[in-house]
Design brief:
heterodimer; A: 2 domains; two-stranded antiparallel sheet; about 70% helix; B: alpha+beta; Penicillin-binding protein 2a (Domain 2); 2 domains; five-stranded antiparallel β-sheet; about 15% strand; elongated
Chain lengths: ~375, ~675
């Protein structure tokens, strides 16, 4: 049990998750410190600040009661869709791909917020759907519409990475909601058929190129294959123990592109080696698998279950795609590594997810355990 | 069967499915850890190597090229430390922006920019293109500072080839230049595409490229992806190429080249004891200094407009009828055949053979002419008469022995060596019998006989020494003792005396008399006709219709030390050649006196060859600017022009005796060619 001299609000916090997470963030800060050539500015300080600020946001979210979540789900969803349309319109006016809105004090990226947003709306939909309807079209068509609208808008931007991320969160919720399994099997089969067609007809040239390069990075060593190749060189040359802090030639001599954002893992692996990589994997194992999925399983009701699992899946998607990308297992898509890469937007999204899971955790504890 | 679905059923489903999702997640985690291990452990060596080759850039340091020295150790071709900027076309990102920025720093004008663009267009991506050389330290520093923002721009310190006397040695040494795609195909050496490295393109520079080149140094440095050098790790010095020492006397070479002035001429001076070539001059010439940076549009226009063909090396590739310079050799043939030098003939201005009359150049006649007078007065009738007696075979034998028609082992890829005609040759070549007029032509150096200036110098040196001298150009080559010509000394003495008389006594060559006490020059002039008298008299008119002027000589006449041959192409006859020969030979004995005479002349010509070329360039640049036509492939075109220039003109079959070219006596009546202002006090006898 938690010692009683610790104030109650702190006692209730999930320290088993927070301590590894903070460790991961600080580890990320050292990577950013090195990527900036041994300086806390401009990345490392801001990274820590972002973490502190958005951890505050997460704690605030964690105190929101369940019914508030449920009340807010549709208005939030509607607002985000409206913002996505607005972004699309602004982008259309400025004749370019636009993903964010300038709010003056920060650039707001509605598609980022849609990642937790879609999970929230999906969880609400399935928790309110009468169980008897779970095997009917009513369990399928409305969620498809709910997902199709923002998903389509994001893909239009075009932002394939974020679009896939939104879909992934939603699909995991749908899967966990108990819809018939054959939907997924046939859906998967359809995807296998549709993927090549999408590749040839739907993807933009630069996206197609990324996929081709992913399949054969060495073919275009100095062009688009450069990113993947340099990233693999950075990771591979680090070996087991790494080259040591500040000794990463790949990042310091600028061979590694985006060394502080998308390829932060490669920057880390060059200097900290496989040990650093295993540490990161271990932290995510604790945070996502042990804690996130654990909270979902212990959650008091259907809504909170689906919500926690969906949020976990959203963060997982970041981690998996980013690490697969830097190690040459996925095409180059602009997805940062949570809590390690520099960048406020992704920190905010991930903290919203964490905060939401913490909220579910609290609901479960308040309810005194699992309800039958 | 419809199963009742309750919340409980759904919760069970969630539990089961969350296990599936969780396992998938840990599966991905496991996959990532495996992949990490594979890259970082199994492929560690491979990626370590790749990371090192990223980090460390091995760049070659072009070796300093071996010097080319004259016989005294003076540099004819050297290197000077240089700041330069090259462009690597395939690494240039914004060409126009980069060029504009460079133009600002290096003060490049439109013509220079156009040249760089021409080169960039033609270059294969990996071949460096020179953007500027001989930069000041400030310019170099300014480019170096901006380099990280200008990918593909390589500023560096290097050595560039320098020919102190420029065009004076153009045909002697050739020039160097950036290796072209063909060179690179032949020799896949990364050194060839190292910025700042040049290979020999022509002449000795090409012939001895392997010796001169040296061994490149190397520099290992840490570089960023953008190519900026972070720090040097280690450097291996280059090994400079070996020097090549020539027999040429650099001072004489420059003097002779400058003395030629605005004429198109060749001057070859040989040592009468060793065969050493002391000067090897063909002017006008290209300036190897400016060829080294590649031939630009303006230069190309200048070269192709010049009817004096600066690209042709007249010494080796110019073939000319020797005119009367052949007479001492013919006289030697007479002596060998047993003719007494006192045997005489009466010259009344022509010789009747059968029903034909062959004219002497002096239509008034020379009166009684013996061998000595035949040489110093250059009487044609004397030679017509006795050549009929002695026969062409004997004359041709002696001519070949003396050096006519011979090719000499010199380090140049080709020589045009002309012909020594005789009856057998004519029968073989034209399937025609030898005719009297053929002998007549040959004995006065017209018709089929052709020589190049190198042969003329060898002939002069062999006549002077009586030895089978071979011309030498490399100082350190073995020096075999020259064999004897097999000519009795009294024959030689006789010829020497007659040739001395030609210049210093009763002859026609007073213009060549040396202004030096106690040193008497022996010589023989010659005028070779280019067109028939029906087109022009050979003295004035169109430049290309004027006669060629020859002069061969040696000094001192009684103890020959130096032999010299001068050819002035379309100079209007031998009067153009004699003063040049005189001044060049004067240089051998009294340099100060020679320089005094030349500097006075150069005032009238508009300065040294370099100065004149620079002035011409300025006027061309002003006239044509960037409108000069583009050089398609300068090297190809150069080689082609040179090849064409080296091709001997076809020899038309002779159908009659050539009218003998007038000798200087008459020449004094004709107006001096405008192209050659001569000192007013030129003695003309």
């Amino acid at each position: 049990m938690t010692p009683s001299f610790i104030p109650a609000p702190l006692r209730g916090l999930p320290w088993g998750m927070l301590i590894p997470l903070t460790g991961l963030m600080l580890f990320g800060a050292t990577v950013l410190y090195s990527a900036a050539g041994g300086h806390m500015a401009p990345y490392a300080w801001k990274h820590i600040m972002n973490f502190v600020i958005f951890l505050g946001l997460a704690l605030a979210i964690s105190h929101v009661p369940e019914h508030r979540f449920q009340q807010a789900a549709y208005p939030i969803y509607g607002l985000l869709v409206a913002l996505l349309v607005l972004v699309e319109a602004v982008g259309h006016v400025s004749k370019g791909s636009q993903r964010w809105l300038n709010l003056g004090f920060m650039n707001l990226q509605p598609s980022e917020l849609m990642k937790p947003g879609i999970v929230l709306i999906m969880a609400l939909f399935y928790s309110t759907l009468p169980p008897s309807m779970i095997r009917t079209w009513r369990a399928l068509i409305p969620p498809l519409l709910l997902l199709g609208l923002p998903g389509g808008l994001v893909m239009l931007q075009p932002d394939l990475g974020t679009g896939l991320s939104i879909c992934f969160g939603a699909v995991v919720v749908v899967f966990l909601s108990g819809v018939p399994l054959w939907w997924f099997i046939s859906g998967g089969a359809a995807a296998v058929v549709a993927a090549p067609m999408a590749f040839f007809f739907l993807l933009h040239d630069y996206q197609r190129k990324r996929v081709l390069v992913f399949l054969d990075p060495e073919a275009d060593m100095l062009g688009s294959g450069y990113h993947i190749t340099q990233s693999k060189i950075a990771i591979g040359s680090g070996g087991f123990w790494g080259k040591g802090l500040g000794n990463g030639s790949q990042s310091h001599l600028k061979y590694l592109p985006e060394a502080h954002t998308d390829f932060a893992f490669a920057t880390m692996a060059e200097e900290w080696g496989m040990v650093g990589g295993l540490f990161i994997l271990a932290v995510f194992f604790v945070v996502l698998f042990r804690w996130g999925m654990g909270v979902a399983r212990r959650a008091p009701d259907r809504f909170s279950q689906l919500l926690a699992a969906g949020m976990t899946a959203t963060v997982f998607f970041y981690v998996a795609i980013n690490m697969m990308m830097v190690m040459g297992l996925a095409p180059v898509v602009g997805i940062p590594l949570p809590f390690v890469s520099h960048g406020g937007s992704s920190m905010m999204t991930n903290m919203i997810c964490i905060g939401t899971i913490m909220a579910v955790d609290r609901w479960g504890k308040r309810a005194g355990g699992r309800l039958a | 069967m419809a199963k009742l679905i309750t919340n409980g059923v759904l919760r069970n489903s969630f539990d089961r499915r969350s296990v599936v999702v969780g396992s998938l997640q840990s599966g991905v985690g496991l996959l990532l850890a495996t992949r990490l291990g594979y890259i970082a452990l199994a492929d560690n060596e491979k990626y370590k190597t790749m990371s090192e080759s990223n980090r460390v850039n091995l760049s070659l340091i072009p070796p300093r090229r071996g010097w080319i020295l004259d016989r005294m150790g003076q540099p004819i071709a050297s290197n000077r430390a240089d700041f330069r900027v090259d462009l690597i076309p395939e690494k240039l990102i914004e060409q126009d922006k980069t060029l504009a920025e460079l133009a600002g720093i290096l003060h490049l004008d439109e013509i220079a920019l156009q040249e760089i663009r021409d080169h960039l267009e033609k270059s294969r991506g990996f071949q460096p293109v020179e953007a500027g050389s001989h930069l000041s330290w400030e310019q170099f520093a300014a480019v170096s500072v901006r380099q990280p923002d200008m990918p593909g721009v390589v500023p560096q310190r290097s050595f560039s080839r320098y020919y102190p006397s420029g065009p004076c040695v153009g045909h002697l040494v050739g020039y160097v230049g950036v290796a072209n795609a063909k060179d690179y195909e032949q020799e896949h050496n990364p050194l060839l595409i190292t910025p700042g490295f040049k290979i020999g393109k022509d002449g000795l520079e090409k012939q001895f490229d392997a010796e001169l080149r040296g061994v490149p140094g190397a520099r290992r440095s840490e570089v960023t992806a953008g190519g900026r050098v972070v720090r040097d790790l280690e450097t291996r010095e280059d090994v400079p190429g070996k020097a090549i020492k020539l027999t040429v006397h650099a001072g004489l070479q420059e003097y002779a080249a400058r003395r030629i002035g605005t004429e198109s001429a060749a001057v070859v001076v040989m040592d009468c004891e060793t065969g050493d070539l002391l000067s090897f001059v063909s002017m006008p010439s290209f300036d190897p200094n400016s060829f080294t940076d590649g031939v630009g549009r303006i230069e190309w226009k200048m070269l192709s407009d010049d009817d004096h063909v600066p690209l042709r090396n007249k010494i080796l590739h110019g073939l000319y009828p020797p005119g009367s310079t052949v007479k001492p050799t013919v006289a030697l043939a007479f002596l060998e055949a047993g003719l007494s030098p006192d045997a005489a003939v009466n010259c009344s201005g022509g010789l009747r053979v059968g029903n034909r009359v062959f004219h002497c150049w002096n239509h008034h006649g020379h009166g009684r002419v013996d061998m000595a007078k035949g040489i110093y007065q250059s009487c044609d009738v004397y030679f017509y008469h006795f050549a009929q007696q002695i026969g062409m075979d004997q004359i041709a034998r002696t001519m070949r022995k003396i050096g006519y028609g011979q090719k000499f082992p010199l380090p140049y890829p080709s020589q045009s060596f002309g012909t020594v005609p005789d009856p057998a040759w004519k029968l073989k070549k034209y399937n025609k019998e030898w005719a009297i007029y053929d002998t007549v032509n040959a004995t006065i150096g017209q018709g089929y006989v052709q020589v190049n200036p190198l042969q003329q110098a060898v002939i002069a040196s062999r006549l002077a020494s009586g030895k089978l001298l071979m011309p030498r150009l490399l100082h350190d080559d073995p020096r075999p003792a020259a064999g004897s010509l097999g000519v009795p000394q009294e024959h030689l003495d006789f010829i020497h005396a007659a040739m001395k008389e030609m210049v210093n006594g009763l002859g026609t060559g007073h213009a060549a008399r040396l202004p030096i006490d106690g040193v008497q020059l022996a010589g023989k002039s010659g005028t070779a006709q280019v067109v028939g008298l029906n087109i022009g008299n050979g003295k004035g008119g169109l430049w290309r219709h004027r006669d060629h002027g020859h002069f061969i000589c040696f000094a001192p006449f009684d103890k020959p030390k130096y032999a010299c041959a001068v050819l002035v192409e379309h100079g209007g006859g031998s009067p153009a050649a004699m003063p040049i020969a005189r001044d060049v030979m004067t240089y051998m004995f009294d340099q100060q006196k020679a320089w005094d005479a030349l500097l006075e002349l150069e005032k009238g010509w508009g300065g040294t060859p370099q100065e004149r070329q620079a002035a011409k360039y300025r006027s061309y640049a002003a006239q044509y600017g960037v409108r000069a036509p583009q050089v398609e492939d300068s090297e190809e075109a150069l080689a082609q022009q040179e090849q064409e220039a080296a091709k001997p003109a076809p020899q038309p079959i002779q159908s009659d005796a050539a009218p003998p070219a007038p000798e200087p006596e008459e020449a004094s009546a004709a107006p001096a060619p405008a192209a050659t202002p001569k000192p007013a006090a030129e003695p003309q006898t």
